[in-house]
Predict the 3D structure of the following.
Amino acid sequence: MSEVVPNRLLEIMMTYYIDADKRTIEMNRMRFMFEESPYYEQGYVMGEIIERYKKMVEHVKRPMESKADSVFATLKRTELIQKLYFEIFHLVNMAHEIPKKYSYMEEFREMLTQVDLDELLRHEQWIKDNERQRKLNMKFEKKRMQQMRELFLKAKIKSYSPVQQKKYNKWWPIDYGWEIDYYW
């Protein structure tokens, strides 16, 4: 009985090992098929860019949260931000090179499309119309603000926004400190 249990346990372990080995071989074939593509490489490079950008943003935000850093710490952080910037710059240039790298393969070659001139002109006109509308809105808003300013000046109001008065604390007569004669 004592020899049966270890043998059975060894058989189960061997079965798990063989099954895992088969699955690993199958996955490696699939992995090789998908790793050797511009989509995988582009995604990987973009992931690295995003990761470095997040680190850079954290280091940039740090002085805004804590102003007690020494000059040395600030310089060190600035050097790290510069290093991350150059890494991001390099990765972005790499990302632009990936389509060129795989252009020799038929399935990854970009098909050049003809530019529709009418569509381009319509889009340009749409941009000009939006710009003109934005300028008109700014002009209208400026005129409205000028009228409000003149009304405030006629009424001799010094502030354009209402002043918030501090409410009196009826439960505690002093708004700060401790009143020594206060009895509970």
Summary: Residues 18 and 37 are 30 Å apart (CA to CA). The first helix runs from residue 4 to 35.
